[in-house]
Amino acid sequence: MKTLCLKIFSILIAILVIWACKKSTAISDKQAILFQVDYINYAWGYQHTGFLIDNSGNILTYKNPQDWNFPDKDLNISESQVKANIESCQRTGNRVSAAELKKYTAYIKNISSSKITAMKNVAADAGNIEYICYQFSGNTGTYKGTLIKMEGDFTCENLNFFSKKVAAWLKSIQETI
Length: 177
Description:
Layout: H1 2-21, E1 33-41, E2 47-54, E3 58-63, E4 76-78, H2 79-87, E5 90-95, H3 98-105, H4 108-112, E6 120-121, E7 128-137, E8 142-152, E9 154-157, H5 161-176
Antiparallel strand pairs: 1-2, 1-7, 2-3, 3-5, 4-8, 6-9, 7-8, 8-9
């Protein structure tokens, strides 16, 4: 009887440990965008292009949109600003598969809790391309952006292990659109 109780207690402890360690990767259905690749260059005339990936995996592009809402210096942007930006985008007809989207969305939480390297000036007149992931807070109606990587005139990158994978994935999508 004592060994049976010990076995049951051990199984319950193991289940609790597994449950406590399980990471939540669910993204709210209210979160309209998950990722953004944004390029800006002021050197040879204004250029502003990029794409968004929404919560359904749709790839939405933009090129020199008027009245674009940029995130603040901390990469925060309101829900209404995101909706207006989405309206300025073009649907490409390209989609990220549900499995692929789930895989890369699962990295957002880890990336958002990591530090970013110091910014280095490495070029001139190349502009900057930023790879960003977002988390939405329904309580505040705000998207909190996290820089994954920046390339161009200035470079820096997120130190999280998964950031290199996500940046490479976003670059591969960029090459197809």
